[in-house]
Amino acid sequence: MNALNVSEYMQALGAQARQASARMSAASAAQKNAALRGIARRLRASFEALAADNAKDLERATAAGLAAPMVDRLKLTPKILETLAEGCEQLAAMPDIVGEISGMTEQPSGIRVGRMRVPLGVFGMVFESRPNVTIEAASLSIKSGNACILRGGSEAIESNKALARLVREALVEARLPEDAVQLVHTTDREAVGQLVAMPQFVDVIIPRGGKGLIERISREAKVPVIKHLDGNCHVYVDDPCDIAMAVAIADNAKTQKYSPCNAAEGLLVAEGVAAQFLVRIGAIYAAKGVEMRCDPRAKAILADVSGAQLVDATEQDWSEEYLAAIVSIKVVSGLDEAIAHINRYGSHHTDAIVTRDHVHAQRFLREVDSASVMVNASTRFADGFEYGLGAEIGISTDKFHARGPVGLEGLTSLKWVVLGQGEIRT
User: Fold this and answer.
1) b vs e for 143-154, b when ≥16 Cβ sit within 10 Å of the residue's Cβ?
2) pLDDT digits over 339-369, tens only?
3) Fewer C-beta neighbours within 10 Å, C or N terminus of the chain?
4) Cis before residue 240, ω within 30 degrees of 0?
5) Nearest Cα residue to 367 out of 340, 349, 331
6) Under 8 Å CB-to-CB from 397, ≥6 apart: which residues?
7) Are the C-beta atoms of 333 and 297 separated by less than 8 Å?
8) What's the whole-number average pLDDT of the chain?
């Protein structure tokens, strides 16, 4: 497909999405829920067919020399498909927030003023690797009354096509426009450039992938972008704290899974508990093969931990998102230094404090400038499902509109509504 054809193709998708969005915004809760249950039913009935399409992607990725972890991300196992089906059913069971009116108050003039929750309209989503994002994005789009244009990675094109077909079948069955969910079928990179520059058709772009992808989209987009570039998350171990709790949280936040954006990359420890805490967490990190990049005080305490992989931290380490078995460790004087460090070096994603001091906890919640701030809990909880949103379409570190995990509310907006009985302004 040449550049001219790509442009025409994307313009057509945009026009179709805009037309579909008008019908989706007026769709009943029953219709949207029927579509979601239809997707769940089709996912369960199509395990074998989906496995065949998925196998084409896996074979091509392996032949291309894609790294094993990346190939693993492409897999659509029966367990993954069942989880997707359950997610659709959970969304169907949730209340429909579209059309809700809140904050209605009567003014001295007699008019009543409130705000109504409405869909954004059309969102474009650009994502890499995991084909399950096709279902997650489509299901949230349907429930929130939007239309969406999805552009997955070329490495999962066959899987994404197969999943999108199921979604469109379910939409038609529920008497909703099939163009409410459209997948970009071309793998030409120019399609992304077109998608992010169509404000006449697309209201917001949501990138989900590596930093390079998100930076490119943020740079080229002519419509708003819901994004986060980095997940440099911290756990701060305060003085006083429950040491056993701190060890469990610091272990889970770092090692439960290394690749997610909500895994902890930095560990800050108050000097009053450093000697007691670091020896215990250091032993666990050493046993799990986690490399520890330390400031001088942390390194001195950890020096006697058997098998510890200790490296002198550089200035760059404090800002680094490792997504690997590496953690930066710094001993700080206390809460003030911890907050200052996080606000300077962090990515405003998710940061946690482990403390017994209520005043310290409240200050941390108020003063740390991040989308999610936690007290006595692992940073790994920062996602839409764990927050009770049903699912998420991404995480935003921006401050306007959506912040943190983006679920149904993040895919809607508020407009003012005024109810009167003939009032006129004098």
Assistant:
1) bbbbbbbbbbbe
2) 999 999 999 999 999 999 999 999 999 999 9
3) C
4) yes
5) 340
6) 227, 228, 229, 347, 348, 349, 370, 371, 403
7) no
8) 95
Among all chains, which residue has been given the structure tokens 């429930």? 143
The per-residue pLDDT for 68 is 85
8 A C-beta contact, residue 314 and residue 333: no
Alpha-carbon span 9 to 125, nearest angstrom: 16
Tokens of 228: 């986060």
User: Taking the chain, what is the end-to-end CA distance rounded to the nearest angstrom?
Assistant: 61
Edge-first strand listing for the sheet containing 147-151:
181-183, 147-151, 122-127, 204-208
Output the pLDDT for position 235.
98
Place of tokens 């020096």: 303
Contact 154, 187 (CB under 8 A): yes
CA 351 centroid distance within chain:
16
Euclidean distance between CA atoms 130 and 338, whole angstroms: 35
Query: 95: Cβ–Cβ under 8 A, 6 or more apart, which residues?
Result: none
Question: How is residue 364 written in tokens?
Answer: 């941390």
Q: If you ran DSSP here, which 8-state letter would residue 400 be given? A: S
- Reference 11, options 193, 181, 195, 196; nearest CA is 195
- 218-274 per-position pLDDT tens digit: 999 999 999 887 899 999 999 999 999 999 999 999 999 998 899 999 999 999 999
Q: List Cβ neighbours of 416 (8 Å cut-off, separation of 6 or more).
A: 113, 114, 115, 116
